[in-house]
Amino acid sequence: MKKIFIATVALAVMAIFISSAQAINISSASVQSGVAVVQGGKAAANANISWEGGNVAKANKNGGFSFSGAVPPDCVGTLSDGVTTIDVALATCTPT
pLDDT tens across 40-76, in order? Predict the structure, then answer.
């Protein structure tokens, strides 16, 4: 019984830790002069940032990043830091 209780507590602590992990956030994402311009934070520290499958930037030690890249035809790009992948909708964009 004691082992089950300890295992349950350990799993609960792990669940809280995992759910409190920071996720990438986007502070701005728009089309400017025909290119996607994206800025954000909370990426993994020093991670390579990929946009639509290609490396475009490297996050700083605090997880901040910014880049310019190709505009996806549907105006929603896939961004990843190697840990988390999110879809980013571009403002001022018209799907082609």
Answer: 999 999 999 999 999 999 999 999 999 999 999 999 9
pTM: 0.78
Tokens of 77: 């790009």
User: Using CA atoms, how far apart are residues 19 and 61, in angstroms rounded to an integer?
Assistant: 22
Closest to 70 (Cα-Cα) out of 43, 85, 88: 88
The 3-state DSSP class for residue 71 equals coil
How far CA 28 is from CA of 24, 65, 67, 88, in Å, comes to 12, 11, 11, 10
For residues 46 and 62, give the distance between their C-alpha atoms in angstroms, rounded to a whole number.
8
